[in-house]
Every structure is written in C-alpha cells, then in structure tokens.
Sequence to fold (196 residues):
Amino acid sequence: MTAPLDETSLDQLFRHARSPRGWSDLPVERETLVALYDLLKLGPTSGNCCPARFVFLTSDDMKERLRPALSSGNIALCLQAPVVVLVCHDPLFFEHLPRLSREADLRNWFAADVGLSEETAFRNGSLQGGYLILASRALGLSVAPFSGFDSYAVEEIFLGDTGWRINFIAGLGYPDAHALPERAMRLGFDESCLVL
Fold:
C-alpha cells in the first residue's frame, strides 16, 4: 500500500498549478523532455495499448509552421511557449501489442475492428495526454492545453507519413510568475458526481 502524497506535492500537481498566461525565458532541455516521457509512459492504458504519440516543437521555425493552423486567440501564448507539444495517437497502435501486452492475439482483435481500435486509440491517447500534464507539473513545468486549431492542417504539416492523428496541442515551459491567472471556478462534488 502506498502512502498518499504530501500536501506540497498535491499543491504542485493540482491546487497551485495553473495554465500559464505567459512563459519565462528558461529553456526546456531535451533531457527534460526525455524525463517527461519516461514518467508519462508509466500511466495505465487499457491492455497497455500505449497509443499516444508526441511531437515536440522546440525551434521557432517549427513552431511558426503551426501558426496557420491555430485559432487566432491561441497564437500568441502557444507560439511563445518554449516547447509546443502535439499530443497525438496512432490508429495502428495495435501493431505494437505483441511487445506491450501479455494477452495472446490482442493485436488481431483490434486489427479486425476499425471502430474499436479508433475509439481505443483516442480514449487511451487522451489519458496519456492527461499524464503529460501531470508529469510536466511534477517536473516543475507548466502546461497550457489548446483545442482551437485545424486538425487537418496540423496533420498535413507535421504528421505526414506517420499516420498519427492529432488530439490536442499544449504549450510547455516554465511559467512567467507574474502571468499566472487566478483559479477559475470548478463544479462542486454534488454537481458533478453520483455515488450509487
């Protein structure tokens, strides 16, 4: 049995964490991106399917290529982030299942049902995108997720021959301490939950 995280850790992951409104000039090194992936990949997915794929845009040239695909309200904050992450999923994730899962013939089960494999890839890729946010916060980074973009344009510009599909985009970096917003309201337990 593992002990609950201490209050400081919970503050860093949830209570004090915010989607930033600006970024500091501190770079995010490649080693940090590797450490980030090495944490997030450990989060659970159904059948250990691990469908998420991540494209880290680190140069100004690569980030600038994203500009025409972004909604106008997202351009400044997104492109100013030290790293922009394209959170994607691989519809053919099942090709890796013989290596990833102990369940016999799981690959063929998904390969035979396109609807099931697409649903599984999107659902579990979204889970892994959530793990990206928590792992980033655990490493002292901030994340600003974006859903306002042209998915077809992003896939055409960046994903080409991979076959990957875009889920959402996130700015990643160290926040500008003077640009952290107040916590927005959240729904209460009784508004969002049923205990049956």
